[in-house]
Amino acid sequence: MSIDVSALHPIERTLLKALADKQDFPVDLLTIGTGLSIDQIRRGIEWLKFKNLVTVNESTVSHIYLTAEGASAISGGLPERRLVNAVKEGKNTIADILANKILKNEELNAAIANAKRNQWIQFVEGGKMLATTLSEKRSPEETFLAEMEGGMEEGKLTEEQKKGFELLGKRPGYLDIRQRKESRISLTDAGRALLPVIASGKMQERRLTPELITSGKWKNVEFSALDVQAPAPSIFPGRRHPLVDIIEEVKEIFVGLGFSEIDGPMVQSGFWNFDALFTPQDHPAREMQDTFYISGLRQQPLPATAAQIKKISQVHRTGWGGWESAEAERVVLRTHTTPVTLQHLAKAKPEAARFFSVGRVFRNEKVSYKHLVEFHQVEGVATAPGASLRDLMGLQREFYARMGIKKVKFWPTFFPYTEPSLQSMVYNERLEKWVELFGMGIFRPEVTEPLDIKNPVLAWGGGLERIAMLRFGLDDVRELYGNRLSWLRSVPRCQL
Question: In CATH, what class is 244-266+334-490?
Answer without folding.
Answer: alpha beta
